[in-house]
Structures are given as structure tokens and as C-alpha cells.
Design goal:
With 244 residues, the chain is of the alpha+beta class. It has 2 domains: 3-84, Gyrase A, domain 2; 97-241, Cyclophilin-like (Cyclophilin, Beta Barrel). Helices cover 19% and strands 33% of the residues. The chain is built from 5 helices and 19 strands. It is elongated and about 55 Å long.
């Protein structure tokens, strides 16, 4: 069971931690902190990455953050106390800004999705490319980003009644209030409204692979034509802004 922490208090304008709502054991080497909203979890996880040893693993997922650390030289209570001293900052909550090109004419569900949303394909493409999204979690397949939130004009679509057995890598999908990118050719049921030529994950690079996105990043899509798609095929996304 998790241990609930009292409300965050403010003294003289300074926040005092811990900043989570509850924290609980996660296996024999980790702790799982739960936060009140996605923004609070992301801001804290980014600050934790800056202040904790690089070999520790910090995994943010929506309103939770898991911290995996070596417990050999410290007790779980000592680790919890150390984590409780980490305060999120306004700068940390911004994350990097990544631009990802997207060819919406290669989205097999674009027109059908647009019709269900009472608009047309061109308008749906403009809306999708005109918004900025936050990466809340990585999962399903290596590097797959769960991003949100879709604006009201794009929200509310269910997954396909029957998932596709093969979704091409780079396919950009929407469902509910989320958008995501398939990083490998796998089965999937999201509504596919476009495709990016970019590689978002390379498991052969280095000891642990290369991944374009991580929780806390902000993503903007840039509309491109089909000729541009094939010209850019196999490229990597552009980091527009980094964390100061």
C-alpha cells in the first residue's frame, strides 16, 4: 500500500515537499510516486533526472513517476526522504520541443476520421499540425509516444472496431484525447491520419538504443507532401528547443 503525504504547503511563496500525493514500493529496487495531475508528475520527473545519479532510472507515465535505484547502500525510507527534497521547477516542466514532419495524405483513416468529427480531411490535418502536444508516456512498443491533449475538434474517436494486423512504422494515429506514433510495424487500432518519415527509435544504437522522444517533451507536427516524405524517409526529428 502507498503512504499518503499531506498537502503541499506554501510558506513565504516557497513550496515545501514532498510534492507527490502518495508513494509506494515498486519491486525491490524502486518507488512509485503518484501526483495530482500529469503536469505535476512531468515537472517533478524532469527535475529528478537533473538531480539524481545518471544510472538511476526515472520513468514518468501520466500521473505517476517510478524511480529505480540501487538499494544496497540505503533503505527505502532514506530513498523516499531523498526524493522528497526534489522540487519541480517551472523551467523543468517545459521539456524539449521536437518538430516531426507528417504527411497527412498517407493517413488511410484521415477522411473517415474527419467525417466522424464533422469536418474534412484538410481541416483535420491543419488542426492536428497546428497544436502542440506533451509526451506523457512511452510504451506499447519501444519509443511509442502517448501524447496529448487533442483539442475538442479532434477528440472523441474510439479505436477501430477491428485492429489492423499491420500498421506501418511512422504512422500517426489519434484516439480519445490522445495522439501517438507507431515506431515499428505492429498491429494497432488507432485511427491513422498521417505518417512521418522519421525514425523515432533505433534499438541497435549504443548499449540501450536511441529514442527520439521522452516523457515531458513537447511535439509539433509539420505538414509535408508525399515527395517530401520520401525525400526525408529515414531521417531523425528536429530538436527545436532544449531545456535550459
Amino acid at each position: 500500500m502507498g503512504r499518503t503525504v499531506g498537502k503541499i504547503s506554501v510558506f513565504g511563496g516557497a513550496l515545501t515537499g514532498p510534492f507527490w500525493q502518495s508513494i509506494e514500493p515498486l519491486g525491490d529496487q524502486g518507488l512509485l510516486a503518484r501526483f495530482g495531475n500529469e503536469e505535476a508528475a512531468l515537472a517533478w520527473s524532469l527535475a529528478a533526472r537533473e538531480k539524481l545519479p545518471a544510472k538511476w532510472e526515472i520513468v514518468a507515465s501520466y500521473r505517476t513517476v517510478a524511480v529505480f535505484a540501487c538499494m544496497t547502500n540505503q533503505s527505502r525510507l532514506e530513498l523516499e526522504e531523498r526524493l522528497g527534497l526534489i522540487a519541480p521547477s517551472n523551467d523543468a516542466s517545459a521539456g524539449r520541443l521536437i518538430e516531426i514532419p507528417c504527411c497527412y495524405s498517407l493517413g488511410p483513416d484521415l477522411e473517415e476520421a474527419a467525417k466522424a468529427l464533422h469536418t474534412d480531411g484538410a481541416s483535420l490535418a491543419r488542426m492536428h499540425a497546428g497544436a502542440e502536444y506533451t509526451v506523457f508516456a512511452i510504451g506499447f512498443v519501444p519509443g511509442f509516444p502517448y501524447m496529448g491533449w487533442l483539442t475538442d475538434g479532434m477528440s472523441g474517436l474510439d479505436r477501430l472496431p477491428s485492429p489492423r494486423t499491420r500498421v506501418p512504422a511512422g504512422s500517426v494515429g489519434i484516439t480519445g484525447r490522445q495522439t501517438g506514433i507507431y515506431t515499428a510495424e505492429v498491429p494497432g487500432g488507432w485511427r491513422l491520419i498521417g505518417r512521418t518519415p522519421c525514425i523515432l527509435a533505433d534499438l541497435t544504437e549504443g548499449e540501450s538504443g536511441w529514442f527520439a522522444l521522452r516523457p515531458g517533451d513537447r511535439v509539433r507536427f509539420r505538414q509535408i507532401s508525399e515527395p517530401d516524405f520520401y525525400h526525408l524517409f529515414g531521417s531523425r526529428p528536429t530538436v527545436v528547443e532544449t531545456i535550459a
